[in-house]
Amino acid sequence: MGRSRDTYGACRACAELRAEGIRIGKKRVHGLMKAACLKGVSRRKRPSTTARRAGGRPAPDLVDRSFTASKPDELWVADITYVPTDGGNLYLSVVLDAFSRRIVQ
Fold first, then answer.
1. Which of 12, 22, 24, 97 is the most exposed place for a label (fewest CB within 10 A)?
2. DSSP per residue over the chain, as a string?
3. Which ranges carry the Integrase catalytic domain (predicted)?
């Protein structure tokens, strides 16, 4: 129950009923749910945020996947993410000093 947060679609309801020893098909459960105006929760698909170009090459790995530094300002790492809002996407970028693990302005 914890994984589903008490939300059941026809497939999950059918599996639960079968686990209880009730012989029933998914189409029958779907029909019964439809007649009772019950719907499973539909999750939104996450939008694709990156589209690779045909023949595009990845950027060179200048630090050879070693994200450690022996002194401040020797290596900075960055990341960007977006936050979907009603008014469109907001973009958040962070630059981090690999030595001190602090955010650089």
1. 22
2. -TTTTT---HHHHHHHHHHTT----HHHHHHHHHHTT--PPPPPPPPP---PPTT--PPP-TTTT----SSTTS-EEEEEEEEEETTEEEEEEEEEETTT--B--
3. 68-105
Global pTM? 0.48
- CA distances (Å), origin 80, targets 49, 83, 96: 11, 10, 12
**Environment class of residue 17 by beta-carbon count within 10 Å: exposed (0-12), middle (13-18) or buried (19+)?**
middle
Q: Which amino acid type is present at position 70?
A: S
